[in-house]
Amino acid sequence: MRTLAGSLLSLEFDRSSVTRVRHLVMVSAQEAGLEGVALEDYVLAVHEAVTNAVRYGSPPRGIAMWRETGTLVCEITDKGPGIPAEVLEREEPATRFDFGGRGLWLMNRLADRVVRTGADGTTIRLSVALP
């Protein structure tokens, strides 16, 4: 795992490294200036994206985090089959009886989210204003 110049975090991950990635995201976000509830919310949003990439995507899976003017940005990528349109368009979370279905909904509420998805993979970009 190495960090690219100018970035806070940049690495590939798999199922076995999800916990370590969450820790690295938390440390990187703290170093960028997030704290308290804003830090917890952002780490949860990124964790949901990482978990979805492992659950539904295919390798290689990557994460990168960097600062832009007044903003912290994290991008999660995979080479999976893409996210179905009906899942992206869902405005309410899945019911409590459904398996899954809350990750994208949570991401959208905890951070600014941009999704690019298709047959060649998915990129989820989550950003939050820095204090």
Automatic annotation (TrEMBL):
It comes from the Bacteria. Keywords: ATP-binding, Kinase, Nucleotide-binding, Serine/threonine-protein kinase, Transferase. Gene3D superfamilies: Histidine kinase-like ATPase, C-terminal domain. The keyword Glycoprotein does not apply. This is ATP-binding protein. PANTHER family: ANTI-SIGMA-F FACTOR RSBW, ANTI-SIGMA-F FACTOR RSBW-RELATED. One of its GO terms (molecular function) is protein histidine kinase activity. The keyword Nucleotide-binding applies. Residues 14-127 form the Histidine kinase/HSP90-like ATPase domain. CDD domains: HATPase_RsbW-like. Its EC number is 2.7.13.3.
